[in-house]
Amino acid sequence: MASLVEYDREFLFKSWIWLNDPEIKALTLTPDFSKEEQLAFYSNLRCRKDYWIRGIIENDLPIGAMGLKNITAQKAEYWGYIGDKSYWGRGIGAFMLSEAISQGKILKLAQLHLIVGNENVRAKTLYLKEGFQLLETGKTEKYFLML
């Protein structure tokens, strides 16, 4: 069973690998980034009030990461990925979304939204099943905003 843990340097290292995998990079709409940029991001996490991040483990193995970003008093943006592809299709995405919604309630947020690429069919199916609505952003046909 999956669980959330502190996002530490092991997850930072794994995230470099996961987010540079071409398939995961495309599905998560991850832009190019350098190791220096990634380290600067990690170094600033503890002092950020607009970001909540957790690592995901299953059987004590790091398999992904998730969190909330752009947190304000009213809303936040959910993001998440399962980097270890051998865990895809096992219901972990639903667990991640549930944990994000729970954290949103703890923070007393009125809205939780996310951005998903048009090609990410599995994620879109999950989000729609969980009650999110699909809205085109108008920026590009690849992006949809789910509220």
What does this structure look like?
With 147 residues, the protein is an alpha+beta fold. The protein has a single domain (2-146), classed as Gcn5-related N-acetyltransferase (GNAT) (Aminopeptidase). It has helices at 9-19, 22-28, 35-44, 92-106, 121-129; strands spanning 2-6, 51-58, 61-69, 75-82, 111-117, 134-136, 143-146. The protein starts with a strand and ends with a strand.
Task: From the structure above, extract its key features.
147 residues, Aminopeptidase, single chain, 35% helix, alpha+beta, globular, seven-stranded mixed β-sheet, 5 helices
Short summary:
It contains five helices and seven strands.
Number of domains: 1
What structural class do you assign from the helix and strand content?
Answer: alpha+beta
Question: Radius of gyration over alpha carbons?
Answer: 15 Å
- CATH homolog superfamily: Gcn5-related N-acetyltransferase (GNAT)
**CATH architecture field:** 3-Layer(aba) Sandwich
Order of helices and strands: EHHHEEEHEHEE
> Strand order within the widest sheet?
1-2-3-4-5-7-6
Biggest sheet architecture: 7 strands, mixed
Please report the distance between the alpha carbons of the first and last residues. Answer: 27 Å
Average of per-residue pLDDT values: 90
